[in-house]
Amino acid sequence: MSKVMIFDHPLIQHKLSILRDKDTGVKQFRELVSEIAKLMCFEATRDLPLEPVTVMTPVGEAHCKRVAGKKLAVVPILRAGLGMVDGMVDMMPNVKVGHIGLFRDPETLEPVKYYFKMPPDIAERDVIVVDPMLATGGSAVAAITFLKEVGVKHIKLMDIIAAPEGVKAVQDAHPDVDIYVAALDDHLNEHGYIVPGLGDAGDRIFGTK
Ligand code: PRP
Ligand code: URA
Protein backbone atom coordinates (compact mmCIF):
# COMPACT_ATOMS: atom_id res chain seq x y z
CA MET A 1 0.00 0.00 0.00
CA SER A 2 1.33 3.41 -0.92
CA LYS A 3 2.19 5.93 1.77
CA VAL A 4 0.40 9.24 2.23
CA MET A 5 2.60 12.00 3.55
CA ILE A 6 1.00 15.19 4.81
CA PHE A 7 3.36 18.14 4.89
CA ASP A 8 2.46 20.02 8.03
CA HIS A 9 5.40 22.42 7.85
CA PRO A 10 4.31 25.81 9.28
CA LEU A 11 5.26 27.73 6.13
CA ILE A 12 3.24 25.37 3.94
CA GLN A 13 0.25 25.54 6.26
CA HIS A 14 0.46 29.35 6.47
CA LYS A 15 0.53 29.73 2.69
CA LEU A 16 -2.25 27.19 2.29
CA SER A 17 -4.54 29.23 4.54
CA ILE A 18 -4.16 32.22 2.19
CA LEU A 19 -4.56 30.02 -0.89
CA ARG A 20 -7.88 28.67 0.36
CA ASP A 21 -9.30 32.13 1.06
CA LYS A 22 -11.99 32.99 -1.50
CA ASP A 23 -10.80 36.63 -1.48
CA THR A 24 -7.25 35.78 -2.59
CA GLY A 25 -6.78 37.17 -6.11
CA VAL A 26 -5.27 35.51 -9.18
CA LYS A 27 -1.78 36.99 -8.85
CA GLN A 28 -1.31 35.96 -5.24
CA PHE A 29 -2.99 32.59 -5.83
CA ARG A 30 -0.56 31.78 -8.63
CA GLU A 31 2.44 32.86 -6.55
CA LEU A 32 1.31 30.77 -3.58
CA VAL A 33 0.76 27.63 -5.68
CA SER A 34 4.30 27.98 -6.96
CA GLU A 35 5.77 28.66 -3.51
CA ILE A 36 3.94 25.72 -1.93
CA ALA A 37 5.13 23.46 -4.76
CA LYS A 38 8.69 24.57 -4.04
CA LEU A 39 8.40 23.78 -0.35
CA MET A 40 6.72 20.44 -1.07
CA CYS A 41 9.42 19.58 -3.59
CA PHE A 42 12.00 20.09 -0.87
CA GLU A 43 10.26 17.47 1.29
CA ALA A 44 9.33 15.04 -1.50
CA THR A 45 12.92 14.78 -2.73
CA ARG A 46 14.26 13.93 0.72
CA ASP A 47 15.08 10.37 -0.41
CA LEU A 48 17.19 11.34 -3.44
CA PRO A 49 20.42 9.33 -3.39
CA LEU A 50 23.67 11.20 -2.78
CA GLU A 51 27.22 10.44 -3.84
CA PRO A 52 30.46 11.65 -2.29
CA VAL A 53 32.37 14.44 -4.00
CA THR A 54 35.52 16.30 -3.03
CA VAL A 55 35.77 20.01 -3.79
CA MET A 56 38.50 22.53 -3.11
CA THR A 57 37.37 25.47 -1.01
CA PRO A 58 39.66 28.54 -0.83
CA VAL A 59 40.96 26.98 2.40
CA GLY A 60 41.27 23.27 1.67
CA GLU A 61 39.65 20.01 0.60
CA ALA A 62 36.00 19.51 1.57
CA HIS A 63 34.33 16.11 1.45
CA CYS A 64 30.80 16.83 0.31
CA LYS A 65 27.77 15.09 -1.19
CA ARG A 66 25.90 15.71 -4.41
CA VAL A 67 22.69 14.28 -5.82
CA ALA A 68 23.79 11.11 -7.59
CA GLY A 69 22.73 12.05 -11.11
CA LYS A 70 19.25 10.60 -10.59
CA LYS A 71 17.09 11.03 -13.67
CA LEU A 72 13.91 12.81 -12.69
CA ALA A 73 10.95 14.29 -14.51
CA VAL A 74 8.12 16.47 -13.30
CA VAL A 75 4.77 15.85 -15.00
CA PRO A 76 1.97 18.37 -14.40
CA ILE A 77 -1.61 17.43 -15.12
CA LEU A 78 -2.94 20.32 -17.22
CA ARG A 79 -4.16 22.83 -16.61
CA ALA A 80 -3.86 23.40 -12.90
CA GLY A 81 -0.69 21.32 -12.48
CA LEU A 82 1.15 23.90 -14.60
CA GLY A 83 0.98 26.24 -11.63
CA MET A 84 3.29 23.94 -9.70
CA VAL A 85 5.99 23.54 -12.37
CA ASP A 86 7.94 26.76 -11.76
CA GLY A 87 8.37 25.97 -8.09
CA MET A 88 9.69 22.50 -8.90
CA VAL A 89 12.03 23.78 -11.60
CA ASP A 90 13.36 26.47 -9.26
CA MET A 91 14.45 23.70 -6.91
CA MET A 92 15.70 21.33 -9.65
CA PRO A 93 16.85 23.49 -12.57
CA ASN A 94 17.78 20.57 -14.84
CA VAL A 95 14.64 18.54 -14.33
CA LYS A 96 12.78 17.47 -17.48
CA VAL A 97 9.09 18.30 -17.74
CA GLY A 98 6.40 16.20 -19.43
CA HIS A 99 2.77 17.27 -19.83
CA ILE A 100 -0.50 15.38 -19.53
CA GLY A 101 -3.66 17.21 -20.59
CA LEU A 102 -6.78 15.98 -18.82
CA PHE A 103 -10.03 17.59 -17.86
CA ARG A 104 -12.88 16.25 -15.82
CA ASP A 105 -16.13 15.81 -17.67
CA PRO A 106 -18.46 17.97 -15.55
CA GLU A 107 -21.32 15.44 -15.86
CA THR A 108 -19.56 12.11 -15.38
CA LEU A 109 -16.48 13.46 -13.50
CA GLU A 110 -14.47 11.04 -15.69
CA PRO A 111 -11.08 12.33 -16.94
CA VAL A 112 -10.81 13.15 -20.67
CA LYS A 113 -7.29 13.05 -22.17
CA TYR A 114 -6.35 15.72 -24.73
CA TYR A 115 -2.54 15.95 -24.56
CA PHE A 116 0.43 13.73 -23.72
CA LYS A 117 4.01 14.83 -24.36
CA MET A 118 6.97 13.34 -22.50
CA PRO A 119 10.76 13.63 -22.67
CA PRO A 120 11.98 10.83 -24.99
CA ASP A 121 13.74 8.93 -22.19
CA ILE A 122 10.79 9.11 -19.81
CA ALA A 123 10.84 5.33 -19.18
CA GLU A 124 14.25 5.73 -17.51
CA ARG A 125 13.17 8.58 -15.27
CA ASP A 126 11.56 8.73 -11.87
CA VAL A 127 8.47 10.90 -12.19
CA ILE A 128 6.76 13.32 -9.82
CA VAL A 129 3.21 13.98 -11.02
CA VAL A 130 1.95 17.37 -9.84
CA ASP A 131 -1.60 18.69 -9.63
CA PRO A 132 -2.99 20.99 -6.93
CA MET A 133 -6.18 18.94 -6.42
CA LEU A 134 -6.83 15.23 -5.84
CA ALA A 135 -10.62 14.99 -5.72
CA THR A 136 -12.26 11.78 -7.03
CA GLY A 137 -8.77 10.67 -8.06
CA GLY A 138 -9.91 9.97 -11.63
CA SER A 139 -7.39 12.37 -13.19
CA ALA A 140 -4.43 11.18 -11.11
CA VAL A 141 -5.25 7.49 -11.61
CA ALA A 142 -5.50 8.03 -15.39
CA ALA A 143 -2.29 10.10 -15.54
CA ILE A 144 -0.33 7.47 -13.62
CA THR A 145 -1.75 4.71 -15.85
CA PHE A 146 -0.61 6.61 -18.99
CA LEU A 147 2.88 7.00 -17.53
CA LYS A 148 3.10 3.31 -16.68
CA GLU A 149 1.94 2.45 -20.21
CA VAL A 150 5.02 4.24 -21.60
CA GLY A 151 7.31 2.37 -19.21
CA VAL A 152 7.72 4.64 -16.18
CA LYS A 153 8.47 2.55 -13.10
CA HIS A 154 8.81 4.94 -10.19
CA ILE A 155 6.12 7.54 -9.71
CA LYS A 156 5.26 9.93 -6.87
CA LEU A 157 2.11 12.00 -6.76
CA MET A 158 2.18 15.51 -5.29
CA ASP A 159 -1.05 17.41 -4.64
CA ILE A 160 -1.66 20.47 -2.54
CA ILE A 161 -5.12 19.40 -1.31
CA ALA A 162 -6.54 15.87 -1.40
CA ALA A 163 -9.90 14.35 -0.52
CA PRO A 164 -9.98 10.95 1.18
CA GLU A 165 -11.90 9.59 -1.84
CA GLY A 166 -9.04 10.55 -4.19
CA VAL A 167 -6.37 9.11 -1.92
CA LYS A 168 -8.25 5.81 -1.77
CA ALA A 169 -8.74 5.72 -5.56
CA VAL A 170 -5.01 6.19 -6.16
CA GLN A 171 -4.05 3.68 -3.48
CA ASP A 172 -6.46 1.10 -4.91
CA ALA A 173 -5.33 1.56 -8.52
CA HIS A 174 -1.63 2.25 -7.93
CA PRO A 175 -0.50 0.88 -4.55
CA ASP A 176 3.14 1.49 -5.56
CA VAL A 177 2.70 5.28 -5.82
CA ASP A 178 3.40 7.38 -2.73
CA ILE A 179 1.22 10.45 -2.29
CA TYR A 180 2.44 13.80 -0.93
CA VAL A 181 -0.12 16.40 0.13
CA ALA A 182 -0.18 19.64 2.07
CA ALA A 183 -3.68 18.92 3.40
CA LEU A 184 -6.11 16.03 3.55
CA ASP A 185 -9.57 17.57 3.54
CA ASP A 186 -12.93 16.30 4.68
CA HIS A 187 -14.94 15.04 1.72
CA LEU A 188 -16.24 15.74 -1.80
CA ASN A 189 -19.50 17.57 -2.42
CA GLU A 190 -22.15 16.43 -4.91
CA HIS A 191 -20.27 18.20 -7.74
CA GLY A 192 -17.01 16.42 -6.96
CA TYR A 193 -15.43 19.49 -5.35
CA ILE A 194 -13.21 19.10 -2.32
CA VAL A 195 -14.76 20.44 0.91
CA PRO A 196 -13.51 22.83 2.17
CA GLY A 197 -10.81 22.78 -0.56
CA LEU A 198 -10.14 26.00 -2.42
CA GLY A 199 -12.64 25.88 -5.29
CA ASP A 200 -11.57 25.28 -8.88
CA ALA A 201 -7.78 25.39 -8.94
CA GLY A 202 -7.49 25.83 -12.72
CA ASP A 203 -9.93 28.72 -12.76
CA ARG A 204 -8.22 30.41 -9.82
CA ILE A 205 -4.73 30.05 -11.34
CA PHE A 206 -5.72 31.22 -14.81
CA GLY A 207 -8.50 33.65 -13.90
CA THR A 208 -11.06 31.85 -16.05
CA LYS A 209 -14.00 32.43 -13.75
C1 PRP B 1 -8.92 19.62 -11.67
C2 PRP B 1 -7.62 19.38 -10.93
C3 PRP B 1 -7.38 17.93 -11.18
C4 PRP B 1 -8.77 17.37 -11.21
C5 PRP B 1 -9.01 16.67 -9.91
O1 PRP B 1 -8.72 19.76 -13.03
O2 PRP B 1 -6.59 20.21 -11.37
O3 PRP B 1 -6.71 17.66 -12.39
O4 PRP B 1 -9.67 18.46 -11.35
O5 PRP B 1 -10.24 16.05 -9.93
P1 PRP B 1 -10.39 14.47 -9.89
O6 PRP B 1 -9.47 13.99 -8.81
O7 PRP B 1 -11.83 14.28 -9.55
O8 PRP B 1 -10.04 13.91 -11.23
P2 PRP B 1 -9.93 20.08 -14.03
O9 PRP B 1 -10.53 18.83 -14.55
O10 PRP B 1 -10.86 21.05 -13.37
O11 PRP B 1 -9.20 20.74 -15.26
P3 PRP B 1 -8.34 22.09 -15.33
O12 PRP B 1 -7.10 21.89 -14.51
O13 PRP B 1 -8.04 22.18 -16.78
O14 PRP B 1 -9.19 23.21 -14.82
N1 URA C 1 -10.83 20.18 -9.11
C1 URA C 1 -10.65 21.39 -8.53
O1 URA C 1 -10.03 22.28 -9.11
N2 URA C 1 -11.14 21.58 -7.30
C2 URA C 1 -11.83 20.63 -6.64
O2 URA C 1 -12.25 20.87 -5.50
C3 URA C 1 -12.02 19.39 -7.27
C4 URA C 1 -11.49 19.19 -8.50
In short:
The protein has 209 residues and is α/β, with parallel strands linked by helices. The chain has helices spanning 10-20, 26-44, 85-91, 138-149, 164-173, 201-206, and strands at 4-6, 50-56, 61-67, 72-78, 96-97, 99-104, 111-117, 126-130, 133-134, 155-162, 178-184, 187-188, 194-195. It binds 1-O-pyrophosphono-5-O-phosphono-alpha-D-ribofuranose and uracil (URA).
For the largest beta-sheet, the strand count, sense and barrel status come to: 9 strands, mixed
Question: Structural class, judged by helices and strands?
Answer: alpha/beta
Strand segment tally:
13
Query: What is the H-and-E element order?
Result: EHHEEEHEEEEEHEHEEEH
Alpha-carbon distance between the two ends: 38 Å
What share of residues are in beta strands? 25-35%
Gyration radius, to the nearest Å?
Answer: 18 Å
Low-confidence stretches: none
Total count of helical runs of at least 4 residues: 6
The ligands bound in this entry are:
1-O-pyrophosphono-5-O-phosphono-alpha-D-ribofuranose, uracil
Shape: globular
- Overall mean pLDDT stands at 95
Helix content: 25-40%
Could you explain how this protein is built, in words?
The protein is an alpha/beta fold and 209 residues long. The protein is built from six helices and 13 strands. Strand 12 (187-188) and strand 13 (194-195) form a beta hairpin. The chain is globular, with a radius of gyration of 18 Å. It starts with a strand and ends with a helix. The structure holds 1-O-pyrophosphono-5-O-phosphono-alpha-D-ribofuranose (PRP) and uracil. Uracil binds next to helix 6.
